[in-house]
Amino acid sequence: MSDRPARTRRAPERTAPVAARGPYAIVPVPRLSLDTVARRSGLHPDLIRRFVALGLVDADRDASGRLAFAPTAPADLARIQRLRTGLCLNYASLGLVLDLLDRISLLEAALRRAGTRSDPPPWT
Predict the structure, then answer these.
(1) Is 61 helix (H, G, I), strand (E, B) or coil?
(2) pTM of the full predicted structure?
């Protein structure tokens, strides 16, 4: 007999499947440049930079340091402009309104998945 303790067998480490670890794109997701977003949305690039600084629109930096936007950015900017002109909101309050609208959308989607309705049933 040796003085060394008996080795215990370690269970193999389990890792989550790739789909559970996080979203990975099979192909690169196209990104839009600031000029492209400005042209498609009809807004000045400086105003779009201000929206990025306020956190109203998401943007990343590419390898050269320029802003890169998701393909949905022109639609997001149009939504911001509609809210600003339709409700007479300033840019600082738009962030709160956008967050609330996104939260409402998530809650309504959860209700739809659960099979319940958010509006009251008809009285007849």
Answers:
(1) strand
(2) 0.65
**Cα first-last separation, the chain:** 86
Q: Look at residue 41 and tell me if it is in a domain.
A: yes
Which residue segment(s) compose the domain that 89 sits in? 28-114
Higher pLDDT pick, 94 / 20:
94
d(CA 81, CA 73): 12
Domain contains 15:
no
pLDDT at 117 over 70: no
- Whether 70 has a pLDDT exceeding 70, the answer reads yes
The total of structural domains in the chain comes to: 1
Angle at 101 (CA atoms; ends 99, 106), nearest 5 degrees: 95
- Helix, strand, coil content of the chain in percent (nearest 5): 50, 5, 45
Residue 35 in domain: yes
